[in-house]
Amino acid sequence: xxxxxxxxxxxxxxxxxxxxxxxxxxxxxxxxxxxxxxxxxxxxxxxxxxxxxxxxxxxxxxxxxxxx
Length: 68
What we know:
The protein is mostly helical and 68 residues long. It has a single domain (9-67), classed as SP0561-like (Orthogonal Bundle). Helices cover 60% and strands 0% of the residues. Helix 4 (41-48) crosses helix 5. The longest helix is centred in the C-terminal third of the chain and has 16 residues, at 52-67. The chain starts with 8 loop residues before the first helix and ends with a helix.
C-alpha cells in the first residue's frame, strides 16, 4: 500500500493495524473514534498540529521495511 496525505485513516488501519503506533507516537490517541477513521492523514495532522508529510514518510518507510 502506498500511503499519501489523502489516505483515509480507517482504510490504513484496516490494511495494517500496526501503523497505529505512529499515530500514538505523535499524540493521536483517538484512533478508535468513528470520526477519526473517516479523516485523511492530512486532516488529522492539521487538527493535531503535526506534520503530515513526516507521518506519511514514516508509514511508507515502515511498509517498505516489512517487504525486506
